[in-house]
UniProtKB/TrEMBL annotation, chains A, B:
Pfam families xrefs: RecR_C (PF21175), RecR_HhH (PF21176), RecR_ZnF (PF02132), Toprim_4 (PF13662)
Function: May play a role in DNA repair. It seems to be involved in an RecBC-independent recombinational process of DNA repair. It may act with RecF and RecO.
Gene that encodes it: recR
HAMAP family: RecR (MF_00017)
NCBIfam families cross-referenced by the UniProt entry: recR
Zinc finger (C4-type) residue numbers: 59-74
GO MF term set: DNA binding; zinc ion binding
Listed name of the protein: Recombination protein RecR
Gene Ontology biological process terms in this record: DNA recombination; DNA repair
Domain Toprim residue range list: 82-177
Swiss-Prot/TrEMBL keywords: DNA damage, DNA recombination, DNA repair, Metal-binding, Zinc, Zinc-finger
Lineage: Bacteria, Pseudomonadati, Pseudomonadota, Alphaproteobacteria, Acetobacterales
Amino acid sequence: MTLTAGGDIERLVRLLSRLPGMGPRSARRAALALLTQPQARLVPLAHAMEAAARNVRTCSVCGTLDSHDPCAICADPQRDHGLVCVVETVGDLWALERAVIHRGVYQVLGGTLSALSGRGPDDLNTRSLFERVRSGEVREVILALGATVEGATTAHWLHERLAPTGVAVTRVGHGVPIGGSLDVLDDGTLAAALSARRPA
Amino acid sequence: MTLTAGGDIERLVRLLSRLPGMGPRSARRAALALLTQPQARLVPLAHAMEAAARNVRTCSVCGTLDSHDPCAICADPQRDHGLVCVVETVGDLWALERAVIHRGVYQVLGGTLSALSGRGPDDLNTRSLFERVRSGEVREVILALGATVEGATTAHWLHERLAPTGVAVTRVGHGVPIGGSLDVLDDGTLAAALSARRPA
Ligand SMILES: [Zn+2]
Ligand SMILES: [Zn+2]
């Protein structure tokens, strides 16, 4: 697009193309889709994006994303802070919150152990989980990880680490399809998986 | 996401979900992908989006998108203003510009005639094309429309409208695959199609 080098469109396409999963072609398509929006829709979106970029941070307790640290869940005295649900991603936490089936708190690992991808224990956000367990405030840890090889490996590793502390460790059970991720499940399946949890 | 109602994340997801082709799920995924970007990448993107929203407009001559009206192409005295290439979309214009094979100017129709979709002549951006042809400044009109039923119908209709004016009307020829759109073609195919143009 030599014609607009340095122009607004070229800059938008260039910045979009730096997002993960975007190539030059998908960035051009996204830019066109955005530019054909009315200004009254695009300007608020730009403002929301800037506000999110400036305000949203990782909760130092559980690892989710929120405008406050600790996050709204960790700061909520109505939630059961003795019941910690361990999930892989923020998207998984959002799925459980939408289903309104977990009244405890969370730990977001930020991924799974993976020999193939070279992700080891140090790459997981677990420090604050172990701290909370050691402090004695945690009664039960629910492992709500995906039913994948990596999820099972991670659950097994966490169970081994947590067992000596004496905390109850359970896993979500029936319902999570093999190879599936929690994020795409309907609320009913999520509820079934959570209520059918068993000792890990 | 009851937890963040009214929060930065909820607002971003809500505004993203209003974009065409976005549902609640894809908006959540897009928001998460954006929020895991460093602030140093997301803030400039938000600024670029706002600048584009405020500055980019439709060129009153050719119908493309640019920060200026007339656009950089229409305002360029180096381009051949007697040679007008008619394309369906801004994306098609960008594809031809990237290939650097057309030194004339453009007319962006903004779509095609389509009986099925109920798009008639009034839905196409043709007024400024006919004005330019009537003014006598145009020597040749190249119809660079997709090789689809709608593209062929539109080319035929334009040819019938333009023939009485005496302007030369040509079509891009070999190279545009049947059912294909110009936007996805490589530069060589685009160059072949353009140089193999023939009277319509
Ligand atoms: Zn938290
Ligand atoms: Zn123009």
